[in-house]
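Quick entry between incubations.
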Amino acid sequence: MDSRPAKNAALPGLAAPTPMMVQYLALKEKAGDCLLFYRMGDFFELFFDDARVASQTLDIALTSRGEHGGAPIPMCGVPVHAAEGYLARLIKGGHRVAIAEQTESPEQAKARGGSKALVARDIIRFVTAGTLTEDSLLDSWASNILVALAEAGGEIGLAAADISTGYFEVSCVAAASLEAELARLGPSEIVAAEGFAAMPYGTIERPRTDFDSVGGKGALAAHFGGGDFASLSRAELAAAGGLLAYLDHVGQGKMPFLKMPVRREVQHYLLIDQATRDSLEITRSANGGGRAGSLLAEIDRTITGAGARMLASDLSAPLMDKGAIEGRLALVQWFHDAPLLRDSVRAALRQLPDIARALGRVVAGRGSPRDLGQIRDGLDGARILRERLGAMAERPALLESLLPSLDGHGAMVDLFTRALVASPPTETGQGGYIAEGYDAALDALRLAGRDGRAAVAAMEARYRASTGVASLKIRHNGVLGYFIEVPAKNADPLMAAGSGFTHRQTMAGAVRFNSPELHEEALRIGQASGHALAAEAAHLEELIGHVLDRRNAIAASADALARIDVAAALAERAVEGRWCLPDFVAGNELHIKGGRHPVVESALAKSGDRFIANDCGLAPDKRLWLVSGPNMGGKSTFLRQNALIVILAQAGSYVPATSARLGIVDRLFSRVGASDNLARGRSTFMVEMVETAAILAQATERSFVILDEVGRGTSTYDGLAIAWAVVEGIHEANRCRCLFATHYHELTRLADSLDALSLHHVRAKEYKGDLVLLHEVSEGPADRSYGIAVAKLAGLPPPVLARASQVLEKLEKGRAETGGLAAGLGDLPLFSAALDAAEAKVDAVRERLTGTDIDALSPRQALDLLYELKGLAGEE
Ligand code: ADP
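Done. Structure below.
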C-alpha cells in the first residue's frame, strides 16, 4: 500500500497539514524517488514510506510522529554524526538519498518570521552510488564510476567519470559494443535521457534536454573555463552534457572534481564482452561476483589505493597499440631487473596517502584538514620519490614522462607544512589543525584561551579553600559553559546568601553554581576560542584555495604515482611467479611455452600440488586447436590460461609462462557450454547460443576465441551438429585463433577437411584400474573419453559403474557396426559449399526480382511470379 500522501494533501474534513509537513512534502516532491533525509536538530528524520524502507534496510525502529490525513505518520531517524554509516548501507541497498539541511539557524528563523517560524530547509545534495566522495562510502582499491549515455546523429555517446578522483572519459560506441564497454567500466550508476533506446537495466532516466550536444558543449566550456571540444562528436558532447547536468543536480550546484575529459577511442582497446569477462573472471570471480578468486586479486601486489584502481582499469581494458604496451612493459622490466630499487620504491609508496581521493573531496567542497594533510604528505613523498628515481641511470621512456609530474608542488608543500599540524583532524569544530607559529594572532588567541583555563584552575583551588569543600570542581559542558559543581551534601555554604555564588542547577547528587568572576573568565575564554576557531577556518579556506588552483597538477602527480605503483607491483608479481616478458610479433600468432593459469596454480600450491605447464601454438596455418580428453582433465584450465595470458600481456604485464610470442589480439571471446554454468542459473542453451552467435558475428582474423564444450546444452545429435558447424564457421569464415574444447569425439573427423585445424588432447591413463589425470596437453585426439573412469573417481557405486560399462560396451559395438553418431558426415559438402549454395539461392531470387516491372504485371502474372520466386528459393 502506498501511504505516500498527495501533494500538500488536506483531506476534506481533516486537519490541514502542519507547516512542517507542508515544507516536508514540498521537499519530498523535489527529492523524487530518492529517500529524503530531513534534518531536525541532531537527527535526519525519514517519514511515510521512506521511513518504512529505511527502517527495514537499516534495521532501526519505526515510530510515528503526529498525524497526516487522519493517520499517524510513520517515522524513523538516524543521528547526524553517524549518518555516513547509515547512508552507506542505504546506497549498498540500491537506494538514493536526498539530504535536506537547515539552511538557517533557529535564531535567523525567529528574526525572519517570529517566534513560531519554521526553520528554512532545502536539499543540499543527493547521495547516489555513482557520485560518492566519502572515504567511508568507497572501497579504496576500486574506482566508482558514473556513466551517462546519449544518442545523437545515429551514434551512442558514452561519458564516464569517477568523481572521487576526477577521472573523466568520453567515447563513441557502436550499439553492439555498448554492453562490452559497460562491462569494462562496471559503473555504480548509469543515467540516460528519457526514451534512450538501448537503456541498460537500472538506468536512471533524466530529462532529454540535459542530453543535448550544443548544450553539452556549452556546459563543458563553462565547467572547464574554455577548452576546445571541437574534436568531440555530437553524441559524445550530448553524453558529457548529460553527465555534467546530473552532477550539477546531485550536488545542487556544487560541482565535483573532473579532469579534462579524455577521448577514448574504443577501437584502441582489446574488446572483451560481458560474458567473456564473467567466464574468465578477470576482475570478479564467478561464484558470488567478488574480487577474491579473480585474476585481478591474484596478481594485485599494488601498495596504494590509486595503484589498485589503476591496475583494475588496466586489466579491464588491455591495449592494442604495440608501442604503448611495450612502453608499460619496459617500466615493469626496469623494476623487475632491479630488486633493491623496487623494494625501496615500494617502501616509499607504502607511506603515501591517497592524494587523488583527498583531492576529490576537497574540490567537492567536503575537504577536511586531514585531506589537506594527506595532500601535503603525498606530494612531499612524490618529490622524494622523484629525486630517487631521477638519480637512476637509463630510465625507461614512460618513467621519464612521469617524473616531471611528481614535482613542482614544493612551495605549496612548504606552506602546508608550516600551516598545518602533523596529523590534522577530520573535524574542524574543535580547531587545533593550524600549527603553532603559523599565525601570531592565532597563537595569541590560543594563549589567551590557555591563560583563561589556567585562571579557572587557580579559581577552583581558591574556591575549595574558601568554601572548605575539597570536592568542589569547576567544569564545562556544551549547554551551560563553565560552572562550579559540589556534591549535594556540601551545597549549603554556597547556597548561603552573600556567598558570592548563584545557584544554576540541582542535579541528582550535585548542585551547580556560577560566580561573577567565573562568568567573566568564561566570557574571555569563549571569545578567545571563538576568534581562534574563526581564524583557523579562514586559514583553512585559504589553504583549500591553493589546492583548487593546483588541482590538475596534483591529480597528475597522483596518476604518476599510481602508474609507478602498478609497474613495480607487476614486477613484484612476475618475480614471485617467475613469469616472462611477452614478445609481440606482427602476424596473428600465439606461441606460448610453459603456460600456466595463475589462479589455478596458486590454488593448487595452497594444497601442496603442482601445476603442469602446457604449450600452445597457434598461427594462421594452424589457427584452430580442437582439444579433447576426459572431464576434469584440464581442458578449461588450458583454454582459459591462454586467454588470461593475452589479457595480461596486452595490459602490459609479464605473463605466467616460460616464453610468450603473440600477435596483438583485437577481440577476445570466451564461452562455456551451458551445463558448465548451470549452477549460476542463467546459462540455458539459449544463452549459450546467443553468445556463440555473437562470436561468429564479431570475431575477426585478429581475434582469439576459446570455446569450451559448446553444444553441450542440448541433445547429443543437436549438440554435435551445432558444434560441428560452429567449428567449421570459425575455421572458414572468422579465421581467428581458436581453442575449442569438446567431448564429442566425432569432431576429430574435421581434421580431415579443415587444414588449419589440429587435434590435441589432455592426457590421462588408467593405472591399476584407476584413472590418473596428467593435465598434460598432447598432440592428436584422445583415445577414449574415460567417462566411466571419471565417474568412478567421483564415487559412483560399483554396481552402477559395472552396469554402465556393460551399456557402453553394447553402444560401442553398435557404433563400430554403423559408423556411429557421425556416420556419413565425412561425405558432407564443404562448409564453404553450404555458404555458396545459400548465397546462390538469394542471388537468383534477387536477379529475378530486379528484372521485374511490378506495375506491368497482371494479378495472375503476379501470383505466378510468387510461385516462381519460391521455387528459386528452393522451398517448393
Ligand atoms: P576439464 O575442463 O577438462 O573438465 P578443468 O580444466 O576444469 O578440466 O580442470 C579440472 C581440475 O584439474 C582443475 O580444477 C585443477 O584442479 C586441475 N587441473 C587442471 N589443469 C591442471 C594443470 N595444468 N596442472 C595441474 N592441475 C590441473
